[in-house]
Amino acid sequence: MEVKYCSSCGSEMETRDVDGTARRACTACSFVHWGNYSIGVGALVVKEDKVLLVRRAQEPGKGYWTNPGGYIEQLEPIEETIRREVLEESGIEATVRSVVALRDQPRNIHNLYVAFSMEYVGGQPTPDGVEVDAAGFYSLQEMETMNVAPFTKWLVDVALRGKSEGLIVDENPVVPLTGYGLFRV
Ligand SMILES: [Zn+2]
C-alpha cells in the first residue's frame, strides 16, 4: 500500500526519484519513506547445557516452545529490551553477553531478528501466564519430545554448538561513542 501522508509533518507524499530509486517522499519536509521494517530480539540463556524456553500462549505460534524475546521499542536500547522481555516472560534475570545470530526475512514488513547469548543471573523459570504459559531450562534430549518451533531448534543449535562467542558488547570503545549500543568481534 502506498504511503499517502507524511508520518513526520502530515503533508501529502509524492513519488520522487531519491538517489536513483523511486520512493515516497514528503512534499513539505525532508521525510522519505524508506520502507517498512521491524526488528525482533531473542535470548539464548544457557544453564548447565540446558536452554531457557517458553511455551507461547498466544498466536502466532501458540503451543510452540520458543526462546524468550520480543520486538524492539523506539527509544529503548536493545540490550535493555531483551533483558526486560526475558524477565517478563520467564521470571529469569539475565544480562547480554554477545550477539550470536541474525535472521533476515525480506518481505512486506522486512524483519530482522537478533539473537543474543545471555548470562544467567538468577531466578526460577516462571511463565507470565499471558504471553507464555510454561517456562523452563531444557536439554536437547528433553526437547525431542517437546513441540519446539523450527527456528528455535536452529537457535538452540547455535546456543549449544556455536563455534564462536559472536559479537561481544564493547563497554570501553577506543573512542567515546555515546548513545550507541556497540557489539564487536
Ligand atoms: Zn513531511
TrEMBL record:
One Pfam family in the UniProt entry: NUDIX
Record's keyword annotation contains Hydrolase: yes
Start and end residues of each Nudix hydrolase domain: 36-161
Organism domain of life: Bacteria
Keyword Oxidoreductase recorded: no
Keywords carried by this UniProt record: Hydrolase
Alphabetized GO MF terms: hydrolase activity
Record Gene3D superfamilies: 2.20.70.10, Nucleoside Triphosphate Pyrophosphohydrolase
Protein name stated in the entry: NUDIX hydrolase
Organism, scientific name: Cohnella herbarum
